[in-house]
Write a structure and sequence with these properties.
The protein is mainly β. Helix content is 9%, strand content 46%. The chain has a single domain, classed as Lipocalin (Beta Barrel). The termini are far apart.
């Protein structure tokens, strides 16, 4: 399974990796905090998210998948590979999956979730499916890492200017 689909699985379904029994349920946002439409996610007006450490960068904004890490090597997406998009405001997240139709990338699925952040730990809730991921963020790059049935994975996103 390619890494793009792994991220989609984690963000859209999150069913392959269960949270450990010692996870504190209070670290996750409630289902009532999950946005229901694109209009509910607005990075320009939401302010910064809670839980970032001093000197760290915010994940609030628009991000496009540009590559992934495989066997310790960074792989950049090539022509014909569509970069999925993730939008974070200060509490909500929207993921948009794209597939290449032979000539263009077309939107195939949109999913909504909510998150909390503590340092480099991102606690996601997509329709009651909870997932803990690790992030590294700079002003222009976001790495999201996790594990699933295929092992560890890391996807690389670049900040998009809106």
């Amino acid at each position: 399974m390619n890494v793009l689909k792994k991220l989609a699985l984690v963000l859209f379904v999150s069913a392959f990796v269960a949270c450990s029994s010692d996870d504190d349920e209070t670290n996750f946002p409630s289902e009532s905090e999950i946005p229901t439409s694109k209009d509910d996610i607005n990075p320009e007006t939401s302010g910064e998210e809670e839980g970032i450490q001093e000197g760290s960068f915010s994940i609030v904004g628009y991000w496009k998948l540009t590559g992934y890490i495989e066997d310790g090597e960074t792989v950049t997406l090539t022509e014909g590979e569509c970069g999925d998009e993730v939008v974070f405001d200060n509490k909500g997240v929207m993921t948009t999956e794209f597939d290449f139709n032979g000539t263009d990338c077309e939107e195939t699925e949109v999913a909504y979730g909510a998150y909390t952040r503590k340092g480099n730990t991102l606690n996601l809730n997509f329709d009651g499916e909870k997932e803990v991921l690790t992030i590294e963020v700079t002003e222009t790059k976001l790495k999201i890492s996790g594990t699933d049935n295929d092992g560890a994975w890391t996807d690389i996103f670049e900040k998009m200017i809106q």
